[in-house]
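Worked example (supplementary).
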Amino acid sequence: MRNWTLVIPLVLAMFTVAGCRGPAIEVAAEGIAPPIGTPVGPVPGAPIASMPRNNPYQQDAVALAEGRNLFEAYNCAGCHGDHAGGGMGPSLRDEDWIYGSTDAQVFNSVAEGRANGMPAWGTKLPEAQIWKLVAYIKSLRTPKEPEPPV
Amino acid sequence: MPLRILLLTVLIILLSGCGGPQNMLGPAGPAAREISTLSWIVLGIFSAVALIMWVLLGWAAWRRRGSLSEHEPIDIGGGQDWILTGGFLIPFVILATVFVLGLRTMMAFPVNHGMHDHADIRVTGHQWWWEVQYLDGTVNRHFTTANEIHIPAGRAVDIELQTADVLHSFWVPKLHGKEDLVPGQPNLIRIEADQPGTYSGQCAEFCGAQHAHMMLVVIAQPEAEYQAWIAGQIDSSAQPVNGEQALGQQIFLAKPCALCHTIRGTEAHGTVGPDLTHLASRQGIAANMLPNNEANLAAWVTHAQALKPASRMPNVTQFSGDQLQSLTAYLQSLY
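After joint prediction of all chains, the assembly is encoded as:
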């Protein structure tokens, strides 16, 4: 009966070892993983050809002030925080441009919306107002920013 | 006397765990009943095992009590039969039994891929609310609601579960077991309630800051009542019947509300937040975190970030008190 104590662990070990051999993983030659065909992460879209590539208002002081008013009036601050410093939505004052920093890309973010909660304001705002918002957003942290935070 | 007090205290503590609206040991449907039964069986088996072990341990300690000098050295020879029986055979039989019982419970949840084609309801988890789409019948009978699922009592309903962002888990403890909402992998669950009633549930997989405030309600209704509810939901939203409501509707459409929320029958068709077409017919707002009433609606519109920080609902404060009152009056008219 003494050898039973040997047999049991042996049987268990056999079961365990049997589970070790997983499905064979396809490995490319020289052990390098095959390239990924699709790009990973959000890719900022190319500016639409018909759209002005640059903001018609540039850094016009009146347009910047109007942009600031629109930012308040349309509750942009509700998500992006006071002076766009960040809230439940991302900060627009920091260095990160998740969906691109060119005028056309920022315009697209506002007009068409982005994943994770940014609605498409293009259904509500005329193009001129969106450009004023873009002008204001791009003026943040520059000397031209209207009513900068104190 | 102290013993009696101790027993009483222990009993009170144990009993305080019973009952409650989300008690999985108080099943109200077939799937939950299977789980509850299995829980009791497993609890019984392992309580018995624990009791026997403690008695044996106590007996061994009692038999060998006293100091080492009073006893002969322990004979370590023999006893292999005890090890074989107690260490292998008995655990094997018990665990195999529990395994088979577990398989039986799993078979009580019939899930197959064919069900994907005719799920009655699709539930989509969002941070931090539940989107509920009714897919029964032809496409013109489909509609979307949120955070509240109505089902016919005594009839099984198949629900497809998916997520718009991270992992969530769908759990109404009185009706069924947990089922995860996995990105890119729709899951299916069949739920059934024996009796009409309201059954509360909860997201059961940590999903971020407001996980604890991601609640849902399942309302089981008699068949006729359920059909009437469906007919009401398919209808587009109620139109304003007085000046105040009309003003509220204008405010809703003019302010940012309409960009994120849909109210069928108006120009509001945002898809970021819950569909509000029949908001007033629901019991709660903010994923059932708050009862649906005038005060909470006003508080939620103006202070959502204070009530539920990091949720996608911003504080909307660009209106006067009168305008806010009109807005809530309109929202409360959306039956």
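Two points are worth noting when inspecting this output. Confidence is low (pLDDT under 50) at residues 22-28 of chain A. Helices of chain A lie at 4-18, 61-73, 76-80, 103-112, 127-139.
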